[in-house]
Amino acid sequence: MAALTPMSLELREISYRYAGSTSAAVTGLSLSIERGRVVGVAGPNGAGKSTLCLVAVGLAPLTIGGELDGQVLIDGRAAGEAAQHELAVTAGILFQEPETQLSGSAPTVWEEVAFGPRNLGLSLDEVVDRTWSAIEALAIEGIVERDPARLSGGQAQLVALAAVLALRPDYLVLDEPTSQLDPEGTRLVADAVGRAARQTGAGVLIVEHKADLLARLCDEIVVLGGGRVAMAGPAGKVLADPTLEALGVMPPARTRLAAAAAAAGLELPAERLPPR
Amino acid sequence: MSALVATWSGSWRGFRPYLIVLTPLVASIMLINTFLYPGAERVLFVVGPLSATEEGLTAASQAALRVIAFAFSVGLFALTTRTGELIEDLEQRGLGRRATFIISAAVGTVPRMADRAREIVDSQRARGLDTQGGPLARLRGLVPLAGPLVLSALTDVEQRTMALEARAFAAPGRRTVLRFHPDVPGERVLRWGMAALSFLLVLLALTGHLAWLP
Questions:
Q1: Sequence-distant (≥ 6) Cβ neighbours of residue B123 within 8 angstroms
Q2: Does A171 lie at the interface with B, CB-CB under 8 angstroms?
Q3: How far is the CA of A225 from the CAs of A204, A249, B96, in angstroms?
Q4: Mutating which of B102, B103, B116, B162 best tests the A interface, going by the most A Cβ atoms within 10 A?
């Protein structure tokens, strides 16, 4: 009987050094994102989170150069063996700076979102369907006629995420997708990401500083520190760990309140704590 | 031809910037050639130490008309053609995705660079740089503007490359065309007619049949 192909994006003992740099940005890093699961990545600035994202989708080193040790396997296939356009459909990435995600060639937001599906040469109906689905998922119908270069930071972030969703990749790698968003925008992103994982079965790797969002979305969480895995495990367990703050990650409100109550000798019932 | 179409379409107002640029250029061509044409002998009139010559006036008129025709052709093209529609049509006709991207990105780059330059000037001004004084102060303000502008444009190239790769820009085959622009028979006849006329004029010029033209 043939062995089953593992449906996961897997990083095995990854070490990566940027071109021109003498030290590695990430070292000996391993993690796995299964289809339909959401893995959160947290950690202080400079921990290697964005580098991890670039490596996971193959942009590092395929496009930006640098030196990679270890293996990136997407559904059992080495990422280095795939062409970049194949990787774009397999593992889509949302960059930290949304403006850099935009093509710079589309006159309207609608065409910006359609840019990726059009590149794939899909039928016009399919392009239109994917574009509107992504736009509706993030409730940006009101700005479809706007020039993508003249959006606010939050709007640009939603457009950039819509552009990634329109490609319908098997894995989504999101580098701080809500950094410029208000609470309503954050909720929309959380809903869209949750839907991508639960309904379409995409595997999601999400880098976030908002621990409450990680608590709501993630199955597992990896905390990075100095380019290495400092802590990893089920989301509930990691986010409740008392050493989390020492690793540069602010615990969710629920955990902080419970800890404060415990320190004051109080015992708060679960229903009095903020929701997850 | 451009002037005729502009008159017909009522788009003269759009030609104003071209006229503003053309006027000093045409004036200098006329003056220099009319008064300083080398080897000219037939004097029309004299102004102080300078003589206006017939040969010079003829050469000046020819050169000025060429410049005007070129500028009006460019102007007419810019005023009557929407860049987006042109790109879509070229794409429909099989222009490659890279060529299409270069054209549309180039069109979008100018206002974006202008926006960025404005941001840099504002931030330099917030740090006390005088960018609104006399010509010397403005000249000094150019150096701290040019550095960040060029460097950020270079950084953009790497990020833009990643963005394009991440959005399947390198995928093989043709991109999906969003809008189809019908090629109506009238336009087709006009297009081929213009091409045939241009070819005929070149042929007549090469065989010496247009020697009677000034």
A1: none
A2: no
A3: 21, 10, 45
A4: B162
Q: At what angle do helices B2-9 and B54-80 cross, to 10 degrees?
A: 50
Look at residue A29 and give its three-state secondary structure: strand
Single-letter amino acid code for the residue at B212: W
For an interface test with A, give the residue of B167, B174, B179 to mutate (most A CBs within 10 A): B167
> Which CATH number covers residue A72?
3.40.50.300
Instruction: Please state, as a whole number, how many other Cβ atoms lie within 10 Å of the Cβ of residue A174.
Output: 26
Listed by start position, the domains of chain B span 2-80, 85-166, 182-214
pLDDT in tens, B181-208: 888 899 899 999 999 999 999 999 899 8
Q: Pull the structure tokens for residue A96.
A: 């930290």
Residue A65 in contact with partner chain B when CB distance is under 8 A: no
What's the total number of domains in chain A?
1
* Chain A hits for B112, Cβ within 8 Å: 104, 149
pTM (two decimals): 0.76
Q: Which tens digits make up the pLDDT trace of B72-130?
A: 888 888 787 877 788 888 888 888 888 888 887 777 777 777 778 888 888 877 877 77
**Would residue A246 count as lying in a domain?**
no
For A51, the domain range is 8-240
DSSP character for A23? S
Q: Is A121 helix (H, G, I), strand (E, B) or coil?
A: coil
